[in-house]
Write a structure and sequence with these properties.
Length: 252
Amino acid sequence: MKVIINNIEYEGLPGETLMELAKRNKVNIPNLCHKEGFEGQGRCRLCMVEAREGNKTKIVSACVYPIHDGLEVNTDSEKIRAMRKNIILLLLLKTPNNEYIKKLAEEYDVKAPERYMDFSINENCILCGLCVKACEKMGTSAISLVNRGTGKKVSTPFDDPSKDCIGCGACAQVCPTNAITMTEANGVRTIWNKEFKMVQCSICNKHYTTEEALDFIESRLGNEEEKVCDTCRKKIISEKFKESYKNIFGQP
Ligand code: SF4
């Protein structure tokens, strides 16, 4: 199916969203809450684009908009640029000290009037919901979006250390604004007000995950996991690959 983005024709795949098609073809559509492996959420609204349907155009969120044959899209029209700037301005007012949002504002030349900027606000979360999705995908659902209006935030039930949290850190890894504090010291990881004893890699001795996360994975896979960190695991795979290459083709 043919889709035109900014006057260039692309071949879309059935079931793809506009964002997926754009990413596959390296067309930049700014976004905060889209991540590969996650369904679009349409939360941050930064990925709004102008889609033409017949003689009319409409504003849609690229991350949740399914493509169809003949779709024409403008990702950078005057209208879109103005709307995007407004969204960034609101994010800047909400998280005035966040480095990522400050950089984004700079990139799009967004300046908030000084009288509206309150630098005493210590907020980094833009409520994109990615962390909640990541936790859901892990199968633990230890955190969720709670409260309404200005009190809306991501938290564990009643802000208490959650019995369901396994300290895997998936939430912190996906957060686009680095809003989740996860610290590690002396073999202990602290996240969401809960401390976790960490497991050491059997090869390099680095602390790499929590005991609870490892138990959780083992219970899901039904077998005991080797205690090996990602870096060492990659090294082992690479060595094995080199070895089989040598066996098949001789010395490289
Ligand atoms: S903590 Fe991060 S990932 Fe979670 S909602 Fe806030 S900005 Fe999004």
